[in-house]
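Onboarding guide, step 5: your first structure request.
Type a short instruction followed by the sequence, for example:

Predict the 3D structure of this protein.
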Amino acid sequence: MKIVCIGGGPAGLYFALLMKQLNAAHDVTVVERNKPYDTFGWGVVFSDATMDNMREWDPVTAAQIEEAFNHWDDIELLFKGRKIRSGGHGFVGIGRKHLLNILQARCEQLGVKLVFETDVQSDEDYADADLVIASDGVNSRIRGKYAGMFKPDIVTRPNRYIWLGTNKVYEAFTFDFVRTEHGWFQAHIYKFDDQTSTFIVETTEDCWKAHGLDEADQQQSINFCERLFTDNLQGEKLMTNARHLRGSAWINFQRVVCEQWWLRNAKGSHVVLMGDAVHTAHFAIGSGTKLAIEDAIELTRQFKLLGNVSGDGREHIPEVLAAYQEARRVETLRIQNAAWNAMEWFEVCGQRYCDQLEPEQFMYSMLTRSQRISHENLRLRDPAWLGGYEQWLARRSGVPVDADSGKAPPPMFLPYKVRGLTLKNRIVVSPMAQYSAQDGVPGDYHLVHLGARALGGAGLVFAEMACVSPEGRITPGCPGTYSEAQKAAWTRIADWIHTHTDAKFAMQIGHAGAKASTRLAWEGTDLPLTEGNWPIMSASPQQYLEGVSQISRQMTRADMDEVKQQFAHGAQMAAEAGADWLELHCAHGYLLSAFISPLTNHREDEYGGSLENRLRYPLEVFKAVRAVWPEKRPMSVRISAHDWVPGGITPEDAVQIAKAFKAAGADLIDCSSGQVSKQEKPVFGRMFQTPFADRIRQEAGIATIAVGAISEADHANSIIAAGRADLCAVARPHLANPNWTLTEAAKIGYTPIAWPKQLYQGKRQMETLFEREKMQQAAAAASAAGH
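The system replies with structure tokens like these:
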């Protein structure tokens, strides 16, 4: 087979040598526009898993690279005059130039033809090639030529960065944050040989411009960075090897994702993208070279697999390329998602974390920025550091740490105090509709349902949304707060929880608006009743399910006054029933949410138009409710922080919404999203709504509740420890297991947690079962490692 690799970076060179090694008869050429043994950039980072792969596929190259590697375990943070170090992270780095030199020499040894100083204009210049590898980088000319087929999604990120080097050698992967009069700069620093370290300086576009760096040349930019990080550099200079770039050499990162990875060109050659040409990963997690090398390995693997069956000639290329794309797509997206999380953290840290967080919590937030490293993963990496951090968190929450053991409760089991209420831990049973009330009255089912979950270890148990009027019910099975019978039923539940458990009881009040008068969920979610429908109203005329739902009428001023009074009456009934906490439901397209979202509010009066106007009525309702709700009891507001529809509420809007409710007297924002429009396209994933809670908490300066796909203790501990939210609301896992909190405590080995005395015999059994399971897993892992 005749193979041409356009671009002599890690992807092209490594694939070339692997294919030549696989079959010496292959005619393999690498074409590079730079001079022989010349390259730009400083150090690159590998993972241990990538090195394992390289040892398997070419031990000779792997040994040479390993010999040149610099290995370090520690991450060090320089921040607000503090130096904090955590170990066990396991990085390996090598100079990019040295890496390419090793790969080039190995290619020559195996008989790969290397062609330098040739700037390839088109893949069709090699019409006789069976396979053309487009490994020509992030600005791939080949990808651009066939953009209509490769369908690249290219996003230019806002931060500016400059990639420099220094002769100061750092023993840890170091992050240095420096505040200026215009904002924060951060440096990402790591050594890659015995004499040199990479030194990447990053900041926001606004800060970059405010310092005049948009008009600076490279030397002026270097001089600026040397002055900025003078305490760190201690007299050492910064260097550039990018003199070929015009201007200051400050650039923006480009995230590249391609829908299609290969094609057949007009000359009959197959063209496949590889490395940065097909995907990029931000330097915040250092996986660009890893992805390139593993691309090369996977494509070679596919040729080898097919070769074992039917040879590896030209006729099999299409099926090999299809298999390659399928095999790499999932892993690539996983790495890119982690890189995106890490990248976004650094993009917003100056606005969101640097000023707000203390150094200890800032370090934790930074270490877990990609969401690949969790709380328990940190414990495996550096138990001493994490133990010390847990002690710091505990003392900050007023919890004494045992002097003998030094152990502190996991973050999710720290108490939380707000107004006159203290929760025993940070876990909340989220409000979940049960559709089981009769005439709005919660019955025995609700007592058992909520009572069981109160026994299950959570600090706060929410009842489902209680509707403030019969017309405000979602379904005929929804409970309410508009009759004495309902108040008596809620009182019975509150009394039982307070008598038999140490959990607190919360109620959520709301009005369904245009989503009212529908069937019970198991009879058809959001579908109108087959009979007995009642008139519905909302901020504007609306039909939630197009062509199916009832059409709501627009509320008049008289309607608004009446409903506001219903909310105040509902809050008063909840207080009299003994609820410890009240939440106002302003999310999910229900009445108050419908006023807030531009997708559902088309009013032309003072309650429509701008976000300020759209918030006017929900704030009126909130103030009326807060006025009758007892001063010492907390009040939260649930919002949809993202409508997931173009033109709808955005996370940026959500910050402003939170600020408005904070100013009105809200204690916390319960950060949900969506369910406002059926046109929504949410992006799901574990803890997928936590970023909304995180952003609102830091930027609006109000406590938050994270909710959505929080399903294990590791999630909750990471969220609380990083300061991304103050409480974690867990919904579906609590439907499956009322004792979710107690179960998760046993899973992570937190035995001091108290169980209800009636259930004490189950405590030790569950803890023992999980302990035995961990021992068996550890033994199996040790056995596998031994073989």
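Each response can be followed by summary notes, for example: The chain has 27 helices and 29 strands.
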